[in-house]
Amino acid sequence: MKLFKLRGGVHPESRKELAADRAIRVLPMPEYLYVPLLQHVGAPAQPIVNVGDKVLKGQLIGASQGVISAPVHAPTSGIIAAIGEYPAAHPSGLTAPTITIKADGEDRWLETAEVENPFSLTADEISTRVAAAGIVGLGGATFPSAVKLNLSRKNNVRTLIINGGECEPYITCDDRLMRERAAEIIEGVRLIRYAVGAEDVMVGIEENKPAALAAMSAAAKNTEVKVIAVPAMYPMGWDKQMIKALTGLEVPADGRTADIGVLVHNVATAYAVRDAVRFGRPLVSRLVTVSGGSIAEPGNLEVPIGTLVETLFDFCGGFRDKPARMVLGGPMMGIQLATAAVPIVKGSSGVLALTAGEIGKVDPSPCIRCSSCVRACPVGLLPLDMAAHIRAGDSAAAVALGLKDCIACGCCSFVCPSHIPLVHYFNFAKGELMEQERVKLKQESTKKLAEARSERIARIERERAEAAARRKAAREAKERAAKEAAAKAATETA
Amino acid sequence: MNKIAHSPHAHAPISISKVMGTVMLALAPATLFGFWLYGWPAINLWAVSLVAAIVGEALVVYWQGRAVRPVLFDGSGILTSWLLALSLPPFAPWWIGVLGSLFAVVICKQVFGGLGQNVFNPAMAARVMLLISFPLEMTNWIVPAPLGSAHAPGLLESLRITFLSQHLDGMASASLLGHVKTEFTRGIGLDQSLAGYYAPLHSLVGERAGSLGETAAVLLLLGGLYLIARRIITWHAPVAMLLGIAIPALIFNLIDSNHYAGPIYHLLSGGVILGAFFIITDPVTSPNTTAGQLIFGFSCGLLTWIIRTWGGYPEGVAFAVMLMNAATPIIDYYVKPRIYGRDRKGVSLSAGKES
Amino acid sequence: MIAALTSLTILGAILGLILGIAARVFRVEGNKLVEEILDILPGSQCGQCGFPGCAGAAQALAAGSAPVTLCPPGGRAVVLALAAKLGREANLAGVKEAVPMVAEVKEEICIGCTRCFKVCPTDAIMGAAQQIHSVFRDACTACGKCEEVCPTESVKLQPIPVTLHGWYWHKPNVQAQQNVPA
Q1: Does B67 touch chain A (CB under 8 A)?
Q2: How do strand A262-266 and strand A32-36 relate by DSSP bridges?
Q3: What is the 3-state secondary structure (H, E, C) of B198-239?
């Protein structure tokens, strides 16, 4: 199939050989699971259980709030040990509301019924099941999948693209999933296609995964699903890049993929959809790659949501030597972990323990305007100019150059010969701008409140004055009436 | 403030010193050839220029209270003075090299704010300064006297040439461009002035009078291609500049071949190859986008040809480059890449349309 | 020489004429400056600047009789914005970057005297006589008036804790990027 030309991108060392050929192993259930209430884009779930409640595996413990939200479920059977703040897997090191579950060791599933023929369900029912299962984009974006399905159905999406790119170095969980569970993935893909009514279905898999291509092609034989090899480069897995490569269409900057009739889902999301629709099982575990130069035995694990990262490291043989950095996610966009005592969440595709050599950190030098970053940017921005403006304190000028379109993929920082932390500048500026927006909104609301108060007080004054005037008028009327009565009485007696 | 590092947690194996080092490697063959062709004086001049640049930069940075090591070791000052040395007449006195290097590194680079902050190419700015201040020394071209040949100056004599400005008799010669221009002023057309003077093969291989680095066009071309292969530079600016010279030269040569030299002549003489691959590709002073670099390169070539043909100086590369350096910011302002999902003006694409 | 004198005089006259016409034709009516300054100020009418409300401060700033550092709740952002708008130098030396604060009522000590909500410029305090008062965090601008009048010191300004919601990356260390000082 003819692929369309792409722009920018970089070719980091894939380092996937560390874990690519390690089959999936199931992590033994840990004793405690820490399930955050916000593992998705949108409103956090609200707990519907109390401390001390007994729960079964797959039981709803946090209900979704509003349209853009997702529920959370118990990853194993046990007792709710705590509901409160726990360190989140976040660069700030701050805490997040988390439900802690103490496993009872039995790992008993909630009773769910298997649907013999999922294709006999209506599209609405499929959406409902996906929503109830708490499925979010497992490629890392964690957008609630049911919302995407409904939106796509409303917009008459024509093309369904399944993203098997997995362009980040080290990460191989999607690769293994495709190699070992291709049939289940294809079933999930076909369910999604049925649920949104798409005509074309394509699975895009990077060329550096020949075994996954073979397995998925075999599973998709005699179905409407087309498996297509795409060039191996970073960020091939960026959904807009995948769309451009496979269809030649560009998603409008102010729009969504649905606006051009396309829906993109990750392969692991398709797998989870199948589990939810056919078995009624919610999302309680995911595949995570454990890799890096400092890990003794890299591998791909099936991990219950809420497992602490340190458990995964220990299971993979621990550290060969102390890692220079621990990262959640891939090296290009992942976040550094200050401590491994944070939980795996729905969007965690990998945990890495990297050596100093792998990181390649060097002190920054001044920008020589070589424009390697411009050539590397897949969006077509000017990272060197945006960073220069932000450093000078002028974030608004960076916005004029397209800061809001930056996807923080890290290509620019990766190739910069001066080792300038470009994406760091952009994320700082984006945060600063959001803060300014918040302050502006607060100012506007403050003004409104102050005006409302002035009005209220003025109104009270007015009403008081009116009431006083009325009383006065009434008094005068009474006096007049009394005078008249007296005068009348006087004339009568006279 | 937390000590967490921001992504990415991996990096391409590249750094400023690697970039500068690769460019120096690409210049080495032509430089060594120049050394062989002109002998010890050339070596002395080159060495003196580099030393002056290093010492000058170190002093300035030290006086500013900045750390000296990172500034010196990124190699950019050395590269600037190397390029300057290559564009000087090989038997120039030492103070030309020193003055030029100091001007380039201290005034044209550090005073503007250090690496990455200068508007004009330091090597070209220094060359222009020397040319207009010391026209005599800067146009004192020499017939090549390869090392080891009979009339090549020995080591001691070379030291005298460089440091005591002792001229050797019988070695002076005009460069090709200078000769042609002078003959034009005497009303003598190309067919006569070039006869016996111009052999393209010699220009290609380098056996004629010229500056230290301009002679071996082949070696410079190879060096430039090596840089493109290593992705230090892209092909856009060099090819555009070569076309910018070749196209007008061809057109006018066809119109009147007696007064307008052909493209081969222009491409092989003066600092064109050096300029196209090593000077205009200086990242600091050239545009950010490949489209911008095409415009920049072509304009440099066109201006070079115009100055050579109708200007007062026989060689135009340095002036052309400096004029275009001034235009780089405006090229960058108007030539920006198209953002994904938006049209050329930056407005978001409407749904359903292809880019 | 006569030619030079005449030509320059004529040139000067023509240009002067053009300037005069432009001054008439492009005259800006009214003083929009006060409105623009008002937009920059926080608008909580707290009075800490010493002027009657933000409108008074805006008038004074436009007239040039008040310094750009007059607004404590505005912090550095407002000082810089005012300086930019008015074309004046901003001396940030005395400006404390206020940690975002919000008033909080300590319910154990509150006696329900109703003094605080009567002075709150944004009606951010809810309460009634003999009832415990409470603060609407979203409406509070930390102007401090409630703290001043409270007889039992039960309402105080506290720093707002940083949450995941509002956190963002710090600015990369600039020093490391430019040539490092020795």
Answers
A1: no
A2: unpaired
A3: CCHHHHHHCCCCCCCCCCCHHHHHHHHHHHHHCCCCCCHHHH
| Side-chain half-sphere exposure of B269, counting CA atoms within 13 A | 29
Distance CA B57, CA A165 (A): 49
**Cβ A424–B338 below 8 Å, yes or no?**
no
Residue that finishes a domain, picked among A236, A259, A291: A291
pLDDT one-digit tens code per residue, A314-372: 999 999 999 999 999 999 999 999 999 999 999 999 999 999 999 988 889 999 999 99
- A419 to chain B: which residues are within 8 Å by CB? 11, 15
Looking from the CA of B276 toward its CB, the CA atoms found within 13 Å total: 32
Q: Does A320 touch chain C (CB under 8 A)?
A: no
Q: Do the domain assignments include residue A226?
A: yes
Does B62 sit within 8 Å of C182, measured CB to CB? Answer: yes
User: Do A167 and A233 contact (CB within 8 A), yes or no?
Assistant: yes
Give ∠ CA A272-A275-A279 in degrees, rounded to 5.
160
Separation of alpha carbons B305 and B319, rounded Å = 11
Asked if B203 and B69 sit in the same domain, the reply is no
Q: Which domains, and CATH codes, for chain C? A: 33-94 (1.10.15.40), 101-159 (3.30.70.20)
Contact: A335, B7; criterion CB under 8 Å? yes
Cα separation, B211 vs B195, whole angstroms: 22
Token duo for residue B113: 């704010």
Range of the domain at B191: 177-208+233-335
The pLDDT profile of chain B, 355 residues, written as one tens digit per residue, is 457 899 899 999 999 999 999 999 999 999 998 888 888 888 999 999 999 999 999 999 999 888 888 888 889 999 999 999 999 988 889 999 999 999 999 999 999 988 999 999 999 999 999 999 998 888 877 777 777 666 667 777 777 777 776 665 556 666 777 777 777 777 777 776 666 656 666 656 656 666 766 667 888 999 999 999 999 999 999 999 999 999 999 999 999 888 888 888 888 887 899 999 999 999 999 999 999 999 999 999 999 999 999 988 888 899 999 999 999 999 999 999 999 999 988 888 886 444 4
Co-location of A383 and A239 in the same domain: no
Touching subunits for chain C (3+ Cβ pairs under 8 A): A, B
- Cβ distance of C178 and B114 shorter than 8 Å: yes
Taking an 8 Å cut-off on Cβ atoms, the answer to whether A363 and C141 are in contact is: no
Distance from CA of B222 to the nearest CA of A (A): 21
Give A 303-332 residues with CB within 8 A of chain B: 325, 327, 329, 331-332
Count of domains for chain A = 2
Query: Are B73 and B181 part of one and the same domain?
Result: no
Residue from C82, C99, C102, C164 to probe the interface with A (highest A Cβ count within 10 Å): C164
Instruction: Provide the CA C133 distance to its chain's centre, in angstroms.
Output: 29
First CA to last CA across chain C, in angstroms?
61
Among A274, A291, A308, the domain boundary falls at A291
Contacts of A452 in chain C (CB under 8 A): 123
CATH number of A257's domain = 3.40.50.11540
Are A273 and A376 members of one domain?
Answer: no
Query: What is the spatial distance between Cα A281 and Cα A267, in angstroms, rounded to a whole number?
Result: 17
Based on the fold, state whether residues B166 and B204 are members of the same structural domain: no
- Tell me, yes or no, whether B215 lies in a domain: no
- ipTM of the predicted structure? 0.88
What is the C-alpha separation between A382 and A399, in angstroms, rounded? 11
- Put simply, whether B255 touches A (Cβ < 8 Å) is no
Contact C171 A428 (CB under 8 A): yes
CA distance A195 to A151: 11
* Phi, psi for C104 (deg, rounded to 5): -135, 140
